[in-house]
Amino acid sequence: MSLIILSAIISFFLVYLLSRKSTRLLIMDKPNERSLHSTPISRTGGLGILGGLIFSGLLLMSTQAYPDDLVSIFVGIIMIAAVSLIDDKKGVSVRYRLLVHTLAAVVLIRSGFYISTLGTPFFSLELNVWLAYLFSFLLILWSINLFNFMDGMDGFAGGMAFIGFSVFAILGILNGATTFALLSAMIASASAAFLLFNFPPARIFMGDTGSSVLGFLMAAMMIWADNKGIFPLWTGVLVFSPFIVDASLTLLRRAFNGEKIWQAHRSHLYQRLVLSGWGHRRTVVMEYGMMLSCAALALCSVLLTQQYAQSGVFIASISFYILTYFYLFKYLRRQEGHDKFK
């Protein structure tokens, strides 16, 4: 418990200091074609999250003789944070960022973080070792980048991290995975401290330094949980599905339409809702509702151990997204069509 509180306190004070215009580490996020904000805002909040997490993480590792799994996670965190901070400050080409992300993924996989079986309540598919490595590698890379793509609205990425990793902590406690639960809770508490300054109207953004690291941690913790039998991969995906589904569907839609998927845009679901007139606060509160609904379904998937019950949760999760997205896209088509002919 003390490490969780320590992570939150350090992050709170670091984010507070970084949000002040007098700080030496001021890096302003100037509005561009992807932005939903209209005035420059500091984007160094991720350093605050990172500071609390690394300090408490070092203490956690010292109490366990620096186990390989924790060391590999924090080595990956530092690698990704370093290139992301440089990118926030003066820009780094996609080639070099991808190289560092690849190295971080390799470090994680070499320490045993890979998915060997793909399973749902309806099927289970064993992967050979090379397919397991490839799938896990792609999962880690996509997670790093999708969290970055989705960090474009006040309170959004911080809220997803707080709710998502809090659920991971609860699931870890329920399954007796103390270290997993503690690290998840430390990430959640650091994210909560940042969220106090990022809830709309935001005083500071987390930048690539925060979003890329949180995406890496999302993948690492999901793989860890699946490997150790804490909860299956599909449950972890369900917890973070408000980010995963929006980012993945948007990427596929843009690719299908022949758009350059690497270019900045404002066509994510949450961006379209903000631009349709909902604004930051209403949109993020709706997204929090989706996150909490998915969290409840994920908890049910673990608490209800019967096969038929887990199958029901899986079907309910898919039905929830079909109904929610049907309503939201119907609303957006009507609203955007109305705005077009004003």
Question: Describe it for me?
Answer:
The protein is mainly alpha-helical and 342 residues long. The protein has one domain (2-15, 43-194, 203-340). The chain is built from twelve helices and four strands; from the N terminus they run αββαααββαααααααα. The strands form two sheets. Strands 1-2 form a two-stranded antiparallel ribbon. The chain has a two-stranded antiparallel ribbon with strand order 3-4. Strand 3 and strand 4 (124-126) form a beta hairpin. The radius of gyration is 19 Å and the shape is globular. The mean pLDDT is 90.
Q: What's the multimeric state?
A: single chain
Q: What's the tally of helices?
A: 12
Mean pLDDT: 90
Unreliable stretches covering 5 or more consecutive residues: none
Shape: globular
Strand content: under 5%
Profile the largest sheet. Answer: 2 strands, antiparallel
Q: What's the SSE pattern? A: HEEHHHEEHHHHHHHH
What would you say about this model in short?
The chain is mainly alpha-helical. It contains 12 helices and 4 strands; from the N terminus they run H-E-E-H-H-H-E-E-H-H-H-H-H-H-H-H. The strands form 2 sheets. It has a two-stranded antiparallel sheet. A two-stranded antiparallel ribbon has the order 3-4.
Q: Which SSEs are present, and which pair or pack?
A:
Blueprint: H1 2-19, E1 28-29, E2 41-42, H2 45-62, H3 68-90, H4 94-110, E3 117-119, E4 124-126, H5 129-150, H6 156-174, H7 178-198, H8 207-228, H9 233-239, H10 241-256, H11 269-303, H12 307-340
Antiparallel strand pairs: 1-2, 3-4
Helix pairs in contact: 1-2, 1-7, 2-3, 2-7, 2-8, 3-4, 3-8, 4-5, 5-8, 5-10, 6-7, 6-8, 6-11, 9-11, 10-11, 11-12
